[in-house]
Design goal:
Elements (H helix, E strand, L loop, with lengths): L2 H5 L8 H18 L5 E7 H5 L6 H9 L12 H8 L2 E6 L9 E8 L2 E11 L2 E7 L2 E5 L4 E8 L4 H6 L6 E10 L4 E8 L5 H8 L4 E7 L3
Parallel strand pairs: 1-2
Antiparallel strand pairs: 1-3, 3-4, 4-5, 5-6, 7-9, 7-10, 8-9
Helix pairs in contact: 2-4
């Protein structure tokens, strides 16, 4: 048992599941995009949809997508800060299927690019990112995470892996467009992936897009 199990997480808000977990999912999306998006739609599922204002899930999601930490006192003023920042946002409600009751789908846009991230808050502030840009995954954010969109050609994955100088904890590979021969690779590592590794991977002719999210 850790100290966190005894005293609970450091956070602003009433619920580790509905507030802290929601914020961490949105903060993951913020770090994946690399900055605050121009617009975002939070699609709330299950109990997130039922208690979204009562437990501060709405403010937590707004705070997270603007890059705030869980202990930031400004979370309470998330609506005002979002308005002043020019963030266009909305909350919608939908049954997202066979997923955890505390699940949100984040559809965001920045510089004509769109991002789609789905995450679940599983208790105690812990989260699972279960989809990135329509690719299923199981990311706890306990690791550093790199996502690359690659041309699905022989040897493409091997060319990426040869440029990594750190150990891989988990790896996901899925073809996302069979006709266009496009695949997505998600790599999780214990150690931070060095900038030089990331530069070599992003410059690889097989790599079409590359994102990196440091462990929080």
């Amino acid at each position: 048992m850790s100290l966190l199990d005894v005293v609970g997480p450091v956070m602003v808000g009433p619920s580790s599941s509905h507030t802290l977990g929601a914020l961490r999912i949105a903060r993951f999306a913020y770090k994946f995009i690399g900055e605050m998006p121009e617009s975002v739609n939070f699609v709330l599922h299950g109990s997130f949809a039922e208690t979204w204002k009562g437990h501060g899930t709405d403010k937590a999601l707004l705070a997270g997508i603007m890059g705030m930490h869980p202990w930031d006192e400004r979370i309470r003023e998330a609506y005002i800060i979002a308005k002043n920042s020019g963030l266009k946002y909305k909350f919608t409600f939908e049954d997202l299927g066979e997923v955890h009751p505390n699940t949100v789908l984040i559809d965001a846009a920045k510089n004509s690019k769109t991002y789609r991230i789905m995450g679940s808050s599983i208790g105690g502030g812990e989260i699972r990112i279960i989809m990135i840009n329509n690719v299923s995954c199981e990311i706890s954010w306990e690791y550093n995470t790199m996502l690359t969109v690659i041309r699905d050609v022989p040897g493409a994955l091997e060319r990426i892996l040869r440029n990594l100088t750190v150990n891989i904890s988990n790896l996901y590979l899925r073809r996302t467009n069979a006709l266009g021969k496009i695949a997505t690779v998600i790599i999780e590592t214990d150690e931070e992936i060095p900038p030089d590794d990331r530069k070599k991977i992003s410059e690889n002719p097989c790599v079409m897009d590359c994102y990196y999210v440091r462990r929080d």
